[in-house]
Amino acid sequence: MATIQVEVEINATIDKVWGIVSDIDNEPKFWKGTKKVRNISKEGNTINREITIAFRDQKCLQQVKIHPKEKIEARFTKGIIDGEKIVSLTAKDKKTILSTYWDIKLTGMMGMFTGMIKKHIKSGTEQAMQSIKEEIERQG
User: What is the CATH number of domain 2-139?
Assistant: First the structure.
């Protein structure tokens, strides 16, 4: 498994940050590794969806659990990726720490490439979180 942890401090309240990160249909805007999102079902704070990832336009199924103003857990349930991505928020003074934690591996024969994609996912996560930070701080 590849584990990745990226944090960014955003000069905004949790409410403001949550307003952007909880709009999970808008994920491709910030996360370049996610090309397309299609929701399949929603029950309470749990959403089942299909995402198309940039890696060979592969489709993956995810179960996303939203914990308001705290975290978003996206568990990969089918496809080339196995594991989870957790985006969490922590208040710090009048700022917010936005963290993304990945614990994933590629499935089947692709498993041997997990190490290679780790750096791509890490840099994509850093880029996404920087874009989220800039968007929120630009809004003021």
Answer: 3.30.530.20
